[in-house]
Amino acid sequence: MYLNKAFLYGNLTRDPELRALPSGAQVASFGIATNRTFRNKEGQQQDQTEYHNIVAFGRQAEVIGQYLKKGRPVFIEGRIQTRSWEAEGQKKYRTEIVVDNFQFGPQAGGAGGSMGGGASASSSQPAGSTQQADDFNSQDTGGDSIQYPDDEINPEDIPF
Hints:
Number of strands: 6
CATH superfamily of the domain at 6-108: Nucleic acid-binding proteins
Order of helices and strands: EEEEHEEH
CATH architecture of the domain at 6-108: Beta Barrel
Radius of gyration: 20 Å
Strand content: 35-45%
Shape: extended
Distance between the termini: 39 Å
């Protein structure tokens, strides 16, 4: 069995470009940037950014073109595809992620989910899971810190 699956979470590097195929189907093309932080041999923290080309078709392309803008975070689930063509006597290649599913990331300013923040663009998720994602995205966690309840947990209150 073979597997071609990509999961990416990053920010849009440009506004989606919406086009129509001869068949009338919509196509959205855009880029996202992902970051990786690591320590080098000397122990210094290093940041590395990767840029990815993303393509969506059909209804997903329409929704992406309508709601996503440069700088907005997005979660992409898709497959890796490399296209090739001939241009000026040279063979050119382009590797892209073709969107199978996506979710909007939280909006700037902590609004998280007011424009469908956890809504999935495909029907592969159960109906209740988008509500859970909305609840998660709308929580104000105060940046990178996690807010824990003030109450102490009593082990006797745990039902198992």
